[in-house]
Structure formats: structure tokens, C-alpha cells
Write a structure and sequence with these properties.
globular; five-stranded antiparallel beta sheet; alpha+beta; binds zinc ion; Peptide Deformylase; 19% helix; three-stranded antiparallel beta sheet; 166 residues
């Protein structure tokens, strides 16, 4: 287990579409998941935020998301559906551009289907914080960054200076 370097905005690898994990290769990704845990925790210590990370952010081109909110969660091959029409407007942030906030709109609720670390198929309705967070993370798996979801061209702020309120 080790803290990995987080790819930063500007790295072309962040724009790549990732590949699905196969059940037969899952054992190979246990170490990657441990690294994702260590990397999020290290980031939190340094920056005071950070709830989740997607594998491509540490240079692994696979559909894997690790989240730690009170407890560890692993989402393998997550797929979102049944998006609520109601949108949340939030200042979003990302481990790949820790000094930037971007105002985005996310669906207030959605459903996630995924495999857990033991390869059990799961489905869960996500609301509020979990809904917006997993939309951010699944976007990473499709090579989409929060800045590409900006509500308009003024929706950017240096972190801690979010005053734009349109
Ligand atoms: Zn991110």
C-alpha cells in the first residue's frame, strides 16, 4: 500500500475513457484500491477535504471508484441511471485541481448499479451529497472533469473565494 501521485489538471490521461474491470482480474486491483484509500487519506491530511477518488486519477485506466465517508466503499464498474429532474447547484472540487472550485449542477438523486469488492452486484438509490459525489466520480471514468460541467464561464473560483452566486 502506498500513497500515489494524483494526476493534475492538464494531464491528458484524465480525459481518457476507462475500461471495465473483469471479475477474473479483480484480484489485481485490490492493491490499487488500497492505494486509492491511502491516497485519499493523505490528500485529506494535506488539504482538509476529499471524499473519493477514481482510479484514473492515479493513472489506472479502469472503472473503479473508492469513497470514504465514515466507512470505506468501493464501486466497481458503476453505472448511474434514473436521474431525478431536480438539480442541485454546488461548488464542486476535485483532487486533481485542489485549489480550484467550480460551480456545477448535479442531479439531486440517481441510482447506482455496481459490483462491490467481493464482486456482489449491488444497486442503491443515491440522494444529495452521495448523488452529486458519485456523478463527479463516474464522470472521471468517462474522462469528464467537473470544469467541463461548469454552469457558465464565470463559474470558477480559487478555493475559499467562491463569491459568484448566479
Ligand atoms: Zn475529481
Amino acid at each position: 500500500m502506498a500513497v500515489q501521485k494524483i494526476l493534475q489538471l492538464g494531464d491528458p490521461a484524465l480525459y481518457e475513457i476507462t475500461e471495465e474491470v473483469q471479475e477474473s482480474e479483480m484480484h489485481r486491483y485490490r492493491m490499487v484500491i488500497a492505494d486509492m484509500h491511502d491516497t485519499v487519506m493523505d490528500f485529506r491530511l494535506k488539504h482538509g477535504f476529499g471524499r473519493a477518488i477514481a482510479a484514473p486519477q492515479i493513472g489506472i485506466n479502469k472503472r473503479l471508484v473508492y469513497m470514504f465517508i465514515n466507512e470505506p466503499r468501493v464501486f466497481v464498474n458503476p453505472v448511474l441511471s434514473d436521474f431525478d429532474r431536480q438539480m442541485l447547484t454546488i461548488w464542486d472540487n476535485c483532487l486533481s485541481f485542489p485549489f480550484l472550485s467550480v460551480k456545477v449542477k448535479r442531479h439531486a438523486a440517481c441510482t447506482i448499479d455496481y459490483f462491490d469488492i467481493k464482486w456482489s452486484r449491488k444497486s442503491e438509490r443515491l440522494e444529495g451529497e452521495l448523488s452529486e459525489l458519485l456523478q463527479h466520480e463516474v464522470d472521471h471514468l468517462d474522462g469528464i472533469l467537473a470544469i467541463q460541467r461548469a454552469v457558465d464561464t464565470k463559474a470558477f473560483a480559487v478555493r475559499g473565494h467562491e463569491q459568484y452566486d448566479k
